[in-house]
Structures are given as structure tokens and as C-alpha cells.
Amino acid sequence: MEKQKIVKTDIAIIGTGPAGLAAAIESAKTGADVILIDENAQPGGQLFKQIHKFFGSKEHYAKIRGIDIGQKLCNEAKDLGVHLMLNTVAFAIYDDKIIAGMTSNGTILIKTKCIILALGANENTLAFKGWTKPGVIGAGAAQTMINLYRVLPGKRFLMVGSGNVGLIVSYQILQAGAKVLAVIEAMPKVGGYGVHAAKISRAGIPIFTSHTVLEAKGEKEVSSAVICELDENFTPIRGKEKEIKVDVICLAVGLTPQTDLARMAGCRFEYINELGGFVPWHDENMETTIPGIYVAGDTAGVEEASTAIDEGRISGIAAASSLTLINKRKAEEKILHIWERLNSLRIGSFGQNRQDAKKVLMKARKNPCL
Amino acid sequence: MSLEKNGYPDIDEIKNSPGYPGDSRLARGNCIVIECIQEIPCNPCEVACKFGAIKVGQPITNLPVFDGELCTGCGNCIADCPGQAIFLVNKAYAPGKALVAFPYEFYPLPEKDEIVAVVNRSGKDIGRGKVVKVINPKKNDHTPVIYLEVPLELADEARSMKDLSGKKDEQERE
Amino acid sequence: MRVINHPILGKDERKKKVTIYVDDKPISAIQGEPILASLLAQGIRVNRITKKMKEPRGLYCGIGRCTDCVMIVNGIPNVRTCVTFVEEGMRIETQEGLGQWKNKK
């Protein structure tokens, strides 16, 4: 019988995106033994695909490109002695905080004192006639191919969705040398930052609000798309269909928190629309309804990399504090300071909704519906 | 609001924002225009200006307030803006001509004296311009800034360019 | 199509190439890239044909979650080509339906 390899640690973090890396850094700073687990062959989550300069303030790494922030965080985590377990799919959380991971050499069990779930989010999809044809892809897929692997999945793109993902990826498609024929948006106004929209407008990409995609046409692969204007009830207006010659239809229609392991561990959830759907309940320390299990980043509500980094930091400090590896008062002070910084991101017409949503989440009773 | 409906601001939205130096200051020449009109948390522009001409303060969602009187037109802020919303406009450049500078993160970069298409905020081709210089120092972190000579009457609209050289075909290969 | 010159990422300096076989056709791939990237670089966008309706499928999520890009790799079916890296001499085939194990491991 195969002997199960068991590894012991203080804090196990699943996900090496911005939240996971930041959590690992803060925990490791206190002297905790930290294991960072990721199913991918390289760390960084979505960070290494973000070739644009970030917003925020100096503390938020403003004007630094996502790829460089990713490298900084990876180096910092490595220098602090964090154990990196790549190519490891964490497929279960059992009682007594045992994580099961699948590697090419078989299963590995990790027995830990604290777990931080930084699993990120999954792209939403949009089904329409012909959507299964090769050429219909997620915006994240486009970003992965062009920024990580330097290959173009096509030459003429239609971007569906004008949130920040749709706007930023459209810009990056141009930088990779392909054409974006249009960005379409079902709502009557652009979803993402005006400056992102202005950048692509200057570059000649038209943005059609109150539009949707009706069909992906093509014999085997996408060779054109049918888009249509919508009325105020989001119903396609007959006669306003337009066919455009594209070979890629990119879907940037939102993200949903990735929470499978939180469910398996028995965490209670809340449904918060502004955060992307079902979100594990957490307190100001990012701790869930299961003591010792924390969440951070998009798993705890879809936002951005800057907020993911700060939530990761909070969870790392809180986890270490629970193991008395850091003085409790010092931990509270640090966490409070990070909350101030977080709240400075969660204001304005884009951020305030999310701050309010997080407040609603944290105020909910500890035994919500699910 | 044009920015929210169309994805690009119209000139009135810009002129009515605190990032606009005012028509008279612009007419005097060599001055920045900040086209940032939404409250998003961001302040690298404030840090970039050594002359204190740009103020954001707290909270960092404040729109940048620009004092044209303190602006020397050095252009340091152009590459530092993550939103690429800062431009240099020199309406006193030469008789009948203005100099407009903008960030440009595309391949290929044009060369000095090259003739390019001038485009406005909605990407429309509005005329021809001549490249005066292209700067791409290391501190810009891969955000080159192009200085374009344009007809004076286009100064308020010229905000980017389109390559006419055909060198773009070298960007990809099977 | 490969992006040779990129305004942020710079020039593609990767030199190490490997040869992979796609439906018996030799293709030049770059070491360190996933199979799917090598195929896309050649304009190959169909990875498999569905069982019931015989429809083509290809890249969708790009990060190993949706399985639309699976192909038969070295005789093993249902291999996610977006997260499996190329190796010298690798044999890749367009998968029909659920695929069949061609070699016994």
C-alpha cells in the first residue's frame, strides 16, 4: 500500500496569487513555518498577466506594473523561507485542518494549525448561439495567452464587457499587435474606469453601450459575430443587429469567487451581489466561521489585486497572532493600519459599493443561511 | 456624461475639471493638461510633480487639482500616470503650430521627423503631425512619451497618434 | 501567431526549441510553453471533437479549469493542453469524443 506523505506546518496557504503571497510574507515575518500551495507550475496567480501600471498610492505599489509587483512579492516570500509547493492541487480539507494535495508523485497530506484560502475567482460565462465554437474565449484566457505565452489566439477581437477586465485586456490585445473591432456592454454606461476606456478610445476601439452579442458565426471556428443594440429592458431591438468580422469573441462578463475548499471545510456563506455572489463569511481578521480558517483576495469577494494584497496581509498577521507568534496588540495595530489603507481604496464611485458590501458581509450573523 | 456613455470625455468635461489649467494659461504655452475626471483612488501624479503643481491630498480619490502657474511643462508626470490621462500642450510652440506630448505604449514607436496620423479622444483621424521627439528613459518604465508637432487648431483635440509606416507588420510571425 | 516585438515585454528572446508532432505533423515549439500555445502559434484552434454532436472545441478558460482544450498526448486522452508543457518528441492528437487510452501506463 502506498505510504501517504504527511508534512506538518504552522500556516498553510492555498493559492499563490497576490493575496496568498502577501499572507505568506506576513506570516513568515513572525517566524511561522509557512507552506504555499498552488496547482500551477508558477506562482503569482493573475499578477504575471497584469502588464499595466497599478493605481492607488505608493503603499499600494501605484505606478508599478503588476508583473513587477508579482516578482517583488515572490522574491520576498522566497527570501523569508516560505516553502513553495507548486504543481500541487489542494483537493480537500479534512477535519483537524488536514489538506490533501495531488502531485505528480501521488497524494500528499499537509497537517497545519491555520489555513488561509486565497483561491481567487473564476470567470463567468455568457451563453449565446454558437458560443461553443473555437474562438469564443474568456478575457482571462486571452490575457494568459498574450501576456504569459506571447501567442495570439486570433487577429480580430470582439470584447464583450466593459468592466476593468474588458477594458484592460482590450488594451493589451492592441499591445500584442491584434485588432479589437469593438467593446460591447449591456449596461447603458461603461463599467470600468473612464481612464481605461479613454485609452482604448484614443486607440480607435469603439465602445458600444446597451449592446449584446447574439451569435458567433463560422463553419468550424468563429469568423464573425452578430451584435445587437438593447432597449431599456435589455431586450435586443429587432432590426438593430450588426454582423462584424472577428475571429475571437472575448467574454469579460464578471468573476465569481472560487470557494470550493471553503465549502468543503464547512465555512458558512453569505450571498453578496456586489462581491460576486456566494462569499464565505469572515470577520475583520479575515477569519471564517471555522476557527483557524481564513480567506483573502477574490475568494472573499471579487475586487482587485491591491485589495487582495491587503486582505492577504491581514489574514497572515491574524493567523500568526492566533498561534501567539506575534504579540496580540502589535497584531491588532498592524491590522488596523491595513484596514485604513484598504478603506482608502474602497471609496469613490467604484469603491464605496464594495466597502458597504464588505460591511454588510461582516455584520451578518454568524449562522447565516448556508 | 460622454466618458460614461461613449468611453471618452468631451472637451467640456475636461475644461470643467480641476485638472484643466484654464484657456489663458494654455495659450501662454508649454503646460500640462490632466484629463482625469472620475474619483478613483490614485495619486502618483501628485508625487511626480517636483514643482507642487498637482495636488490630490486625502482621500486619494480626490480629483487632481492642477495649478498651471506652477507648471514648467517638464512632462515628468506624463509617464507616471497609470491611467495615461496626462498630456503636454504647447500652444506657443511655433507660428501656426502646437506641440502635444502623450504617452504611447505600442509597437512600433515612431522616429524623429516621421509623419503620423493625429487622432482625437475618440480615435478619429483628424490630421497629420510630425514627430519632434520620442523619449523612453528607464524611469518611465516602458511608457514612452511622444512629442508631436500638430497644426495649432488641433491642439485641444490631438491626444494620440496612428502609425502610418506599415512597420507594424513586423510585430508578429507565424 | 507569435508576438515577436512587444512594447512592455520586449523582444522575444527565447531560443530553446523542441519539435512536437500534432496529428503526425512536426511542429516547432518553444521550450517552456504549454502545448496549446504552440498550436495557437500555428493557427491551430481546434483541439477536440465532441462525442455526441461532433462539434469542434478549443481554448476557452486557458487556466486548466474548463477542459475544452483537452487532447490525446503521448497516447493519454483528456490532457489539458493549456497547462501541460511541451517536451521534445511529444505526440499530440486531436481527440475524438472521450478519447481512448492508446498506451497502457
Q: Return the average pLDDT of chain B rounded to an integer.
A: 95
What's the multimeric state?
Answer: heterotrimer
The name of the CATH superfamily of chain C reads 2Fe-2S iron-sulphur cluster binding domain, sarcosine oxidase, alpha subunit, N-terminal domain
**What class would the helix/strand composition of chain C place it in?**
mainly beta
Give the SSE order of chain B as H and E letters.
Answer: HHHEHEEHEEEEEEE
Number of individual domains of chain C = 1
Helical content class of chain B:
10-25%
Instruction: State the distance separating the first and last CA atoms of chain B.
Output: 43 Å
Number of strands of chain B: 10
Could you give the count of β-strands of chain C?
Answer: 11
Secondary-structure element sequence of chain C? EEEEEHEEEEEE
Q: Quick one: overall form of chain C? A: globular
Which spans of chain C have pLDDT < 50 for at least 5 consecutive residues? none
Spans of chain B of at least 5 consecutive residues whose pLDDT stays below 50 are none
What kind of sheet is the major sheet of chain C?
5 strands, mixed
User: Overall pLDDT of chain C, averaged?
Assistant: 95
Question: In percent terms, what proportion of residues of chain B is strand?
Answer: 25-35%
